[in-house]
Amino acid sequence: MKIFTAAREKMVEHQLEDRGIKDIKVLYAMRKVARHLFVTEALQSRAYEDCPLPIGENQTISQPYMVAYMTEALELKSSDIVLEIGTGSGYQSAVLAEIVRQVYSIERIKDLLARARKVFDELDYTNIATKNFDGTYGWKEKSPFDAIIVTAASPDIPEPLIEQLAVGGRLVIPVGNTSSQILKRVRKSEKGIEIEELCGCVFVKLIGKYGWGEDDNNSKGYLIH
Ligand code: SAM
């Protein structure tokens, strides 16, 4: 069984550190989590390439740089409780789980979640709880969250996620149309919320009550995060 240690190190140096990722907790997690275990065997040799990859069900595992960038943007502390919307392959959840106390992750596609759950269990990630549901509702019973990450593109910031963010909390979400978005960071304080625009990005659709409808158009035919 290949373990790809050299490929992973090269990915961290060239794709992350050279592009300005600095948070040592994020770099540690990206060095540790074996990305190839979150893709099919046929794609394992490509797992450390600088691009998203298909994971089935028309969904993708995001580019390593985007995973690191969004994780850094969450400004995580080891005591944090984090909500992730869009478990997908489970890779981002595992990166988060290396850094924080507890991760809650929601995925709407049952088969993807079952695959991710199997990998979490095999790798003994006891601090990742998952749910098969529409994540645009958040996970109220487990709120408030110190950080929330949405790994699919939304037309707007879902109101329940803002409500479920703790005071002092950070929410990172791609917002825009179905072909391109701006990654936004929301900070919640006693005074209200503050929204920053971080960078342009392209993600698959967040489908649900406070996201897109199933049939809303995605005009791009190529592989997106
Ligand atoms: N974080 C993932 C990873 O590391 O592999 C990548 C996620 S992929 C870019 C986006 C995921 O969001 C897809 O698996 C998709 O099914 C999921 N998704 C879309 N809308 C959702 C919703 N309302 N609730 C939960 N998951 C959703």
Automatic annotation (TrEMBL):
Domain of life: Bacteria
EC number(s) per entry: 2.1.1.77
UniProt keyword Transcription regulation, yes or no: no
SUPFAM superfamilies per UniProt: S-adenosyl-L-methionine-dependent methyltransferases (SSF53335)
UniProt keyword Ribosomal protein present: no
GO terms classed as biological process: methylation; protein repair
Reactions catalysed: [protein]-L-isoaspartate + S-adenosyl-L-methionine = [protein]-L-isoaspartate alpha-methyl ester + S-adenosyl-L-homocysteine
UniProt-annotated location(s): Cytoplasm
Signal peptide: none
Stretches that traverse the bilayer: none
Active site residues of this protein: S62
Top-level EC class as recorded in UniProt: transferase
Cellular component aspect of the GO annotation: cytoplasm
Keywords: Cytoplasm, Methyltransferase, S-adenosyl-L-methionine, Transferase
Molecular-function annotations in GO: protein-L-isoaspartate (D-aspartate) O-methyltransferase activity
InterPro entries: PCMT, SAM-dependent_MTases_sf
Chief site of localization: cytoplasm
Pfam families: PCMT (PF01135)
Reported function: Catalyzes the methyl esterification of L-isoaspartyl residues in peptides and proteins that result from spontaneous decomposition of normal L-aspartyl and L-asparaginyl residues. It plays a role in the repair and/or degradation of damaged proteins.
PANTHER family: PROTEIN-L-ISOASPARTATE O-METHYLTRANSFERASE (PTHR11579), PROTEIN-L-ISOASPARTATE(D-ASPARTATE) O-METHYLTRANSFERASE (PTHR11579:SF0)
HAMAP family: PIMT (MF_00090)
Family the UniProt entry places it in: Belongs to the methyltransferase superfamily. L-isoaspartyl/D-aspartyl protein methyltransferase family.
Name of this chain's protein: Protein-L-isoaspartate O-methyltransferase
